[in-house]
Design a protein that fits this description.
The complex is a heterodimer.
Chain A: E1 2-9, H1 13-24, E2 30-33, E3 49-51, E4 60-61, H2 62-75, E5 79-81, E6 85-89, E7 94-99, E8 103-114, E9 118-120, E10 136-138, H3 139-149, E11 156-160, H4 164-175, E12 179-185, H5 194-201, E13 208-210, E14 212-218, E15 225-230, E16 243-246, E17 249-252, E18 256-258, H6 261-265, E19 290-292, H7 303-321, E20 330-335, E21 339-343, E22 346-348, E23 355-361, E24 365-374, E25 377-387, E26 393-397, H8 399-402, E27 410-416
Parallel strand pairs in A: 1-2, 1-8, 2-5, 8-19, 10-17, 11-12, 11-17, 12-13, 20-27
Antiparallel strand pairs in A: 3-4, 6-7, 7-8, 9-18, 14-15, 15-16, 20-22, 21-23, 23-26, 24-25, 24-27
Helix pairs in contact in A: 1-2, 1-7, 3-4, 4-5
Chain B: E1 2-8, H1 12-21, E2 28-31, E3 48-49, H2 60-79, E4 83-84, E5 88-92, H3 95-111, E6 117-120, H4 121-127, E7 137-141, E8 145-147, H5 149-162, E9 166-168, E10 175-179, E11 182-186, E12 191-199, H6 205-210, E13 219-229, E14 240-243, E15 253-256, E16 262-265, E17 269-270, H7 281-294, E18 303-314, E19 320-323, E20 330-334, H8 340-358, H9 382-391, E21 398-400, E22 405-406, H10 407-415, H11 423-430, H12 443-454
Parallel strand pairs in B: 1-2, 1-12, 2-9, 5-14, 12-20
Antiparallel strand pairs in B: 3-8, 4-8, 5-7, 6-7, 10-11, 11-12, 13-16, 13-17, 13-18, 15-16, 19-20, 21-22
Helix pairs in contact in B: 1-5, 1-8, 2-8, 10-11, 10-12
Chain lengths: 417, 476
């Protein structure tokens, strides 16, 4: 049995930032477990730029962004094991993990930070009819083939879903000589960042078909074409609008799902909207000493915010290990009227700092405002020229405001048009 | 190559027949048009071992169903294949259907199905807490079970190969000549000869028979579409839940699978194209609606994949297992639709006996009936895992996260007798890629391992043989 104060599961941007912050707060004994061959997580295959604008004030590629943290992890001599998969967390905070070198590892932790990231939603979840031919894959899988393995997964491409990875891959495949025929988006708006639509589609004259989906996949061995169709306001295909598009590849960028198998197995309470754990302002879950951050908690738009959130979790885990926790008097947060969710879902009002609430809206709004209410009474209101589901919003609740709240109270955030 | 027997079609029927024959001193070829075994009906069906009350008394279906189901548990044990004796329930939603249950019970008794019983509403609810409140009664058949049909097929073929059978992949039989008492079976490029041919070509058995001028068989592909749900809803059915049968089949079922998923389906639509395993949006939504009649809380949210399979439906509406009228050395095993999987073990023995009457062959002294169950890391205790990784570190590297499949298991699948040659072959043998991410993460790693083990470039690896390649040329 190994013993560590903090075991971090996942060595992507979330896990690394959390571990570094915990070290900064004075925890010596930290171990990061990473299932891939290297630290860095999914950033390693994101060779495009656009990372770090908020956090570093400069534009970095994914591997560059990751590298800054990998260097710090090395400098700080934080221990990590790559090619190591966590299999189970027990009720006593024992982590079972496995790798080729050590075999089965049994690690006793005082605190655990969950930073496993997310995965892409597969075809089955969409129930797209048609053949099971080769050539249908998630955009992230295609990204790995192109950027890491150096092989093209197709030449004539249709992309379903305008999530950021889909948009990025539209540009990437074009640059590598493929013909990207179009991007189809089921919703009347894109779920990707505006800058990605401009830089990845508009700049390359790739059409984006909104309110449109793939209704059929054709081809016996390899995809030979897809049928797309317009959808009505209930997202049902409109008969008569079908169009056949010849292609050999269908990339799916239809959503990300936090990977919470370990979390669920140990009985931590999950939020049905985020599919991540329910947490407090330090990202502590319903299980004492277990924290969660990054895309395993809720899917973020920018890695910069993953880093910030994970530092909070790292600080929380350090405080827990060092016995510096506050007395707890919680209020809850709740997204209403257009706000899909808020993280954290509960806040300790005895906390001595400000608290940043992250949230996402459910549709596109123009010239709206976001309103924060405490027990029904408006406390903050912010004018927003544009709100979109693809972009995370946040609001800061100042500590002096928190001090006026009472245990059991509720903060609601809503959109008002 | 010259053989005593050529079995055409490496589905569950052909593979089990080849295995039965491999007990004897015979040279056997198991010939398959695809890149792997279990590529047709055997990979896409309900995976049910039926108790045997459906088929008409006196029919081949009734006989082989009851016999096959009795053989199945022991066979699965010998071949290291998962089988669970979960039992089945046929649910009645009206008084009329309750009457149907009674006639099914009678028919079952006539067919020799043991321990049938009609459950009232309360007992049904106790057995299946998520069953619809509309359900009035059910026929309980404890001898029914679930099996993994492609694992059974793969295990049978592997065991046949270990016992001397040649497994010939990518050999689509296009021509069969008969001269001097010997068949010459050709794919247009290569030939093999055989004294006996067994036609186990599934939906193609009519075309295969026609190659020797036997036009007595007519198969219609009857498509069945299914939805597979995540393990998180596996608890919604404890047993195989049928609805009352109609003339097109046994209706829509809701059943657990041996791996803990939940399977819904199948539809039943006659089609023309024998290779059309596409799914249709309307059909799938009908399947879900029909399944909700049994288990109302089902939703699309937990569906991880959908697929279609083709039943080899014969006009005669019964199995055809007999020498061809055109040539007695050509044995048709045709029209094997439901309960074909349940019947397969008994059909294999029957065909073997039929051949032994004609061919004078001794039993091998060194026949090994056992196919060891492959390593299943996910089912092991931590102690077992420790010992396993100590012996071979490849079992310490997880490739498929969703199903917890190790590199060692994937290497075993590739290096097995008649092992996997493509991504789907690895998937069927190990479950890598069958989980909730459906190969999103592990797919590229499986491609790498296949390329490494087979000594080819990664862009030569296919999803399921033929032209189903995954990657094109290198990036710029």
């Amino acid at each position: 049995m190994l013993n560590y104060d903090i075991v971090v599961i996942g060595g992507g941007p979330a896990g690394m930032a959390a571990a570094l912050k915990a070290r900064e707060c004075g925890v010596e004994s930290i171990l990061i477990l990473e299932r891939a061959e290297t630290l860095g997580g999914i950033l390693e295959q994101c060779i495009h730029t656009g990372f770090g604008l908020h956090y570093f004030g400069e534009e970095l590629s994914g591997p560059e962004y990751a590298d800054r943290f990998i260097r710090l992890v090395d400098e700080q001599k934080i221990e990590y094991k790559t090619d190591t998969m966590a299999l189970e967390i027990t009720e006593n905070n024992v982590v079972y993990a496995v790798n080729k070198k050590d075999g089965l590892l049994e690690i006793q932790a005082k605190a655990i930070i969950l930073a496993m990231g997310c995965r892409e939603r597969p075809r089955g979840a969409l129930n797209i009819a048609g053949s099971r031919a080769s050539g249908v894959m998630s955009a992230g899988t295609a990204q790995k083939y192109v950027n890491i393995d150096g092989y093209m997964p197709g030449k004539k491409v249709v992309i379903l879903g305008s999530g950021d990875i889909g948009l990025i891959m539209a540009r990437r495949m074009t640059l590598e000589g493929a013909e990207v025929k179009c991007v189809c988006e089921l919703m009347p708006y894109s779920s990707g960042l505006t800058r990605n639509i401009v830089q990845c589609l508009d700049d390359f004259n790739i059409p984006l078909h909104l309110s449109c989906t793939v209704v059929g996949i054709h081809g016996k061995d390899r995809v030979e074409g897809v049928t797309i169709a317009k959808v009505d306001e209930n997202r049902k295909p409109i008969p008569g609008t079908e169009e056949y598009i010849e292609c050999d590849t269908l990339l799916l960028s239809v959503g990300l799902i936090p990977e919470n198998e370990l979390t669920r197995a140990v009985g931590i309470n999950l939020d049905p909207v985020t599919s991540g754990a329910i947490v407090d302002e330090y990202r502590e879950t319903s299980r004492k000493g277990v924290f969660a951050c990054g895309n395993v908690l809720h899917v973020h738009d920018l890695v910069d915010y993953v880093t910030l959130e994970s530092q909070t979790a790292g600080e929380g885990a350090a405080r827990y290990v060092l016995g510096k926790t506050d007395t707890a008097e919680y209020i809850t947060t709740k997204g209403v009227n257009g706000v899909r969710y808020i993280v954290p879902q509960k806040v300790n009002i005895k906390n001595d700092g400000d608290v940043k609430l992250y949230f996402r809206v459910g549709q596109v709004y123009k010239n709206a405002k976001t309103v924060v209410k405490y027990n029904g009474e408006e406390i903050i209101s912010k004018k927003r020229p544009r709100l979109a589901p693809g972009e995370m919003e946040n609001v800061i609740i100042k500590n002096d405001m928190l001090k006026n709240f009472a245990e059991g109270g509720t903060i609601e955030i809503s959109v008002e048009v | 190559m010259n053989y005593d027997v050529a079995v055409i079609g490496a589905g569950v029927i052909g593979s089990l027949i080849a295995r039965e024959l491999s007990r004897y001193n015979l040279k056997i070829a198991l010939v398959e048009k695809c890149n792997d075994m279990a590529m047709g009906t055997s990979k896409a069906n309900s995976a049910i071992v039926h108790a045997g009350f459906d088929a008409k008394p006196g029919s081949m279906k009734a006989k082989f169903n009851v016999e096959g189901t009795a053989l199945m548990p022991e066979l699965c044990k010998t071949l290291g294949v998962p089988f669970k004796p979960v039992g089945s329930l046929v649910v009645a939603f009206s008084d009329e259907e309750v009457e149907t249950l009674k006639s099914l019970l009678e028919r079952g008794n006539e067919n020799g199905v043991p321990c049938l019983e009609i459950y009232g509403k309360e007992k049904l609810k106790e057995a299946e807490p998520y069953i619809s409140d509309e359900a009035k009664a059910a026929l309980w058949a404890p001898t029914a079970g679930i099996v993994c049909p492609y694992e059974l097929t793969i295990a049978a073929a592997e065991n046949a190969v270990v016992n001397g059978t040649d497994f010939i992949r990518n050999f689509e039989v296009k021509k069969i000549d008969f001269n001097g008492g010997i068949f010459t079976v050709s794919n247009g490029e290569k030939e093999i000869t055989a004294k006996y041919v067994i036609n186990a070509a599934g939906v193609f058995c009519d075309e295969t028979a026609a190659l020797i001028g036997d036009t007595s068989i007519h198969t219609t592909p009857r498509k069945g579409e299914y939805m597979l749900c995540d393990k998180s809803v596996g608890h919604l059915a404890n047993h195989t839940i049928f609805q009352c049968p109609s003339k097109m089949g046994k209706g829509i079922l809701v059943t657990p699978t041996v791996d803990g998923n939940l399977l819904l389906g199948p539809s039943a639509i006659d089609i023309d194209d024998k290779e059309d395993v596409t799914t249709q949006a309307d059909t799938l939504s009908d399947v879900l609606e029909a399944a909700k009649k049994s288990v109302p809380c089902l939703t699309t949210r937990e569906v991880i994949t959908s697929f279609a399979g083709l039943r080899a439906h014969c006009d005669k509406n019964d199995f055809i297992i007999e020498p061809s009228k055109v040539n007695a050395q050509f044995i048709n095993v045709a029209g094997i639709e439901s309960p074909g999987l349940s019947s397969a073990p008994a059909i294999a023995v029957y065909v073997k006996d039929m051949l032994l009457e004609a061919l004078d062959a001794d039993e091998k002294s060194d026949f090994n009936p056992v196919r060891e169950e492959p390593v299943r890391f996910r089912h092991m205790t931590n102690e077992e895992r420790k010992a396993l990784i100590d012996k071979n570190p490849a079992y310490g590297r997880i490739i498929c996260r969703c199903e917890t499949i190790t590199e060692g298991e994937i290497l075993d699948a590739i290096n097995a007798p008649a092992g996997a040659r493509d991504v789907d072959g690895v998937k069927r043998r190990t479950r890598a890629g069958m989980g909730r991410c459906q190969g999103g993460f592990c797919g590229s790693k499986v491609v790498e391992l296949l390329a490494r083990e087979l000594g080819v470039e990664i862009n030569e690896i296919t999803k399921f043989g033929g032209n189903s390649k995954i990657l094109y040329e290198r990036t710029k």
